[in-house]
UniProtKB/TrEMBL annotation, chain A:
Organism from which the protein derives: Kribbella sindirgiensis
Matches recorded under Gene3D superfamilies: ACP-like (1.10.1200.10)
Superkingdom of the organism of origin: Bacteria
The protein's name: Acyl carrier protein
Pfam families, sorted: PP-binding
SUPFAM superfamilies linked: ACP-like
TrEMBL record, chain B:
Underlying gene: acsA
Protein name as it appears in the record: acetate--CoA ligase
InterPro entries in the record: AMP-bd_C, AMP-bd_C_sf, AMP-binding_CS, AMP-dep_synth/lig_dom, ANL_N_sf
GO molecular function: acetate-CoA ligase activity; ATP binding
GO CC annotation: cytosol
EC number: 6.2.1.1
Length: 80, 572
């Protein structure tokens, strides 16, 4: 399933908030690697990917992980 | 190691010590000399000691580079009036400065205490204060986020060295590189007693504050020989230990042991990513790889096909530590990498690998292996307290197949020499001439050891030991929380994840908003050891002395039958 840009942004934002509920997403630049910015460890990142997959109804393989580093990456991935 | 039984029979720690050089003119034993300086005398100064893989590229440091840089670091410490026994803390990843700091610190007879950089501000402050930190080496970003806001509480912290300081370093910090540039690169290591304190590693218990396990320079004898036996290290190896330097594996086998063998070690500062890890293994022709079950389980999820895309033909030996390695991973690795994973067992207090599957010995998937030559291990009967303590009577060594507390006969060189400022808890770690590990195990008929579980409430998550008390104490600082019980719940990747049961004060609603707030609160304060799950419980079970019964919470969580509960926790 392909999402609109706006839906993709909302889904990524809400998913990040599930992991880091007080994350300041407005202060997170679209091109910033959020694993660093939000201090996600590898387990957090795994949860993020699983929640993103469930939320988008889209299978996400390990090969796709490098395409999910930033907000822009994720929006691009989910909307194409 | 040729044949296990023969190696065990022929072994002596005195002979193992002969494999090292000692300081010139019989001036003692210093880890930094064994790890670096002695290789210069044998013509290996030009060999690459560290290949540092950073975000912006790769940088090689030879043994000569490392020797000179650590000399400068030692000179810097002296110029800052930081002397022997003074504690030098690091809050760093696997950056070149981590290694320079460690070695320079030992050259100055100061004590290295590496902290996990993913800790939140509270665990960091507790450890800096407990360990009497005088110096901290860290990054500008970590300093700004985790140290600067609480600096006024860090009494005794005299110097903060930043490895990436901006042109105008923050007030009260020192630009490490500029300061090193002003130091001479000559240094003579002072006479060093093998029993001089070298390392302070914090670990967590069931109760109370974190414990600072003290290790001495003589530990290097055990680091060196165990790396030969369990990791099969040889001078021309390219070795990758993926452990963070903030945990004991990242120091004993991430820094010391590989350098004493003169290998090239990889220092990879990046996050875990399956494809990138394979790329690192392939590009650098890694021959020996020491990693953790959580990472291996994540690689297993990525599948055999991904592994097959990379040239891993240089790999000769794979080992794992951190929590029990499930047999499926051992079997999967045989298919994916053409070789099994060798699990081994040890802990912060033991300083070096104690029980291991060896290259020369058939692996029993799921077993931690057999005791290292020079190490006597046994399983002791547990008393009513759940531990093998003498309070329940004399210790009783169990036979094959029986479950009890794993215990070790003290006497190997990397045995911890105490918990800093806490002799009481140190004494409690021994009974009947044995060191009690806190792990439950059994031995099979052929002498292989099998991990069963923890004898106490400590949580093992992603290879990290998490003390429930530290997490509970932090949660209690939230105004909504009046009581908390923290346990580990099974997780297919991490082994266990931290789950907190909290009782709310009157007036607070147990809703999703509060749950999210508590998760966020935990992450802000505790960082990587924060609870991942929060449950509300207004009726936490208590012992007769009023403590939360974590074991009962755990039994409920695991769905164990009611009848089993009485044996899980008894009032103490």
């Amino acid at each position: 399933m392909t999402l609109t840009l706006q839906d993709a942004r909302e889904l990524v934002g809400n998913t990040l908030l599930r992991i880091v509920p007080d994350a300041d997403l407005d202060a997170l630049p679209d091109d910033a690697p959020f694993r660093d910015e939000l201090e996600l460890d590898s387990l957090d990142f795994l949860s993020f990917v699983e929640l993103l997959s469930t939320g988008s109804g889209r299978r996400i393989d390990e090969d796709d992980y490098p395409r999910l580093r930033t907000m822009s990456d994720c929006i691009g991935f989910l909307s194409t | 190691m040729p044949i296990y039984e023969e190696a065990r029979q022929d072994f002596s720690w005195a002979a193992a010590a002969q494999l090292l050089s000692g300081l010139p003119e019989g001036r003692g034993l210093n880890i930094a000399h064994e790890a670096v300086d002695r290789h210069l005398a044998t013509g290996r100064g030009g060999h690459v000691a560290i290949r540092a893989i950073g975000r912006s590229g790769t940088r090689d440091l030879t043994y000569r580079d490392l020797s000179l840089l650590s000399n400068r670091f030692a000179n810097l410490l002296r110029s800052l009036d930081v002397g022997p026994r003074a504690r030098v803390f690091t809050l760093l990843g696997r950056q070149p400065e981590m290694y320079v700091t460690a070695l320079g610190c030992w050259k100055n007879l100061s004590v290295l205490s590496p902290l996990f950089a993913a800790f939140g501000p509270e665990p960091i402050r507790n450890r800096l204060l407990l360990g009497d930190a005088q110096v901290l080496v860290t990054t500008t970003s970590l300093y700004r986020r985790k140290i600067a806001p609480q600096r006024d509480q860090l009494h005794g912290l005299r110097h903060i060295l930043l490895i990436d300081a901006p042109d105008e370093p923050p007030d009260g910090t020192i630009d490490l590189h500029r300061a090193l540039g002003a130091q001479p690169d000559h240094w003579t290591i002072p006479a060093t007693s093998p029993e001089a304190m070298a390392l302070l590693h914090f670990t967590s218990g069931t109760t109370g504050t974190p414990k600072g396990a003290v290790h001495v320079h003589n530990a290097v004898v055990a680091h060196h020989i165990t790396a030969a036996f369990a990791l099969d290290l040889r001078p021309h190896d390219v070795f990758w230990c993926t452990a963070d330097p903030g945990w004991v594996t990242g120091t004993s086998y991430g820094i010391i042991a590989p350098l004493t063998h003169g290998v090239t070690l990889l220092a990879d500062d990046g996050d875990f990513d399956a494809a990138r890890w394979y790329q690192v293994l392939a590009d650098n022709r890694v021959t020996v790889w020491y990693t953790a079950p959580t990472a291996l389980r994540m690689l297993m999820r990525a599948g055999e096909e991904m592994a097959s895309r990379y040239d891993l033909s240089a790999l000769r030996h794979i080992a794992s530590v951190g929590e029990p390695l499930n047999p499926e991973v051992v079997v999967w690795a045989q298919k994916a990498y053409g070789m099994p994973v060798h699990d081994n067992w040890w802990q912060t207090e033991t300083g070096a690998i104690m029980i291991s599957n060896y290259p020369s010995m058939p692996i029993r998937p799921g077993s931690m292996g057999r005791p290292m030559p020079g190490v006597e291990a046994a399983v002791l009967r547990c008393g009513d307290s759940g531990r093998a303590a003498v309070a329940d009577g004399p210790v009783d060594v169990l036979g094959a197949g029986q479950v009890g507390e794993l215990a070790l006969r003290p006497g190997w060189p990397s045995m911890f020499r105490g918990y800093l400022h806490d002799d009481f808890r140190y004494q409690q770690a021994f009974a009947g001439g044995w060191y009690l590990t806190g792990d439950l195990a059994r031995i099979d008929a052929d002498g292989y050891f099998w991990f069963v579980g923890r004898a106490d409430d400590v949580i093992k998550s992603s290879g990290h030991l998490v003390g429930p008390f530290e997490v509970e104490s932090t949660l209690l600082e939230h105004p909504a929380v009046t009581e908390a019980g923290v346990i580990g719940v099974p997780d297919p990747v991490a082994g266990e994840v931290v789950k907190a049961f909290v009782t709310l004060r009157p007036g607070y609603q147990p809703d999703e908003a509060l749950r999210a707030e508590l998760i966020a609160f935990g992450r802000r304060r505790l960082g990587a050891v924060a609870p991942r799950q929060i449950a509300f419980d207004q009726n936490l079970p208590h012992t007769s002395s009023g403590k939360v019964m974590r074991r009962l919470l755990k039994a409920r969580e695991l769905g164990l039958p009611e009848g089993d509960l009485s044996t899980l926790e008894r009032p103490r």
